Amino acid sequence: MSGALLLLLGADAEALASRLEASGYGVICGEAGLAATPEPQSRIDLVVLAADAAERIAALRELLEAVPILLDEGDDTLEGRVHCLSTGADDFWLSSQGPSDLLMRVRLQLDLRRRRMPPSPLLQVADLSLNPSNHEVKRGKRAVALTAREYQLLLLLLERQGTVVSREQIQRLVWNDDRGASSNVIEVYVRYLRQKLEEGGERRLIHTIRGRGYCLSERMPPLGQHR
User: Fold this and answer.
1) What is the C-alpha to C-alpha distance for residues 194 and 204, in angstroms, rounded to an integer?
2) What is the Cα–Cα distance from 209 to 159, expressed in whole angstroms?
3) What does the alpha-carbon distance between residue 62 and residue 7 come to, in Å, rounded to a whole number?
4) How confident is the model at residue 194 (pLDDT cuts 50, 70, 90)?
5) Measuring CA to CA, how many Å separate 135 from each of 119, 121, 147?
6) Do 70 and 93 meet the contact criterion of CB atoms below 8 Å apart?
7) What is the pLDDT of residue 183?
8) Would you state the pLDDT for residue 214?
9) Distance CA 44, CA 65 (A)
10) 123-216: CATH topology
């Protein structure tokens, strides 16, 4: 799974959220989702715009800097290509061709971005490592395959390693304030992560701090009751 985080703006783009999630991408939908995302320029990997959201490109460029932007042009015409380039988008996608065209262009732009960007430093705790450049996760030499949501959750815990991350913070930063992300759903995803990270018999790194949230650390945190 990619684990890349995509921002979808405009009804036609947001309507493809479930299809993109099924293909392994994390998604943020709409202006509210963007506003709820801290440091979006370092978290969002690509923007998918509906045709009627083209006027947002200038503001997105200022906010997200070099993050690739795909604009819906409906059909592949010379006029559409010229319009796409004149708006400042990196590439276009064709809503008339269905999700397959968008998925192909998303993969292409993400690959180009990875090649252009300098390698990011590994995030590590004990023998667990996460490479933000290619979204590769390893436990020792063992590769760990994660879904997009699992990857975003692990990334958050690694970025804040050694500190307690509350369920409210996880809901806001991983589920983008989606009210469907109940405490139970978060617990389920923590369990999924633990199962995958401990599949080879490795020791636990994600600790539950009762009444407070979760902490990723090499040793059991000395913070009240935990499990």
Assistant:
1) 7
2) 18
3) 15
4) very high
5) 11, 12, 11
6) yes
7) 63
8) 94
9) 11
10) Arc Repressor Mutant, subunit A (1.10.10)
- Cβ contact 216:161 at 8 Å: yes
Task: Evaluate whether 5-116 and 123-216 have a shared fold.
Answer: no
Residues forming a β-bridge with 206:
216
Write down the H helix ranges in 40-166: 40-43, 57-64, 78-87, 99-116, 148-159
Q: Which residue has the tokens 């819906």?
A: 72
Q: Which two tokens stand for residue 102?
A: 């968008």
Residue 225 in this model has a pLDDT that exceeds 50: no
Write out pLDDT tens, residues 119-141.
678 899 999 999 987 889 999 99
Q: DSSP H helical segments within the chain, as ranges?
A: 11-14, 17-22, 30-35, 40-43, 57-64, 78-87, 99-116, 148-159, 167-173, 183-197
CB atoms within 10 A of CB 42: 14
Residue 118's identity, in one-letter code, is P
- Can you tell me whether residue 205 is helix, strand or coil? coil
* pLDDT tens-digit readout, 96-121: 888 888 999 999 999 888 888 776 78
pLDDT at residue 226, as a whole number: 47
Amino acid at site 13: A
Residue with tokens 């801290």: 38
Strand partners, 28: 7
Per-residue confidence (pLDDT) for residue 178, from 0 to 100: 56
The structural architecture, per CATH, of the domain 5-116 is: 3-Layer(aba) Sandwich (3.40)
Cα distance between residue 202 and residue 194, in whole Å = 10
The ranges assigned to domains in the chain are 5-116, 123-216
Please, what is the average pLDDT of the chain? 88
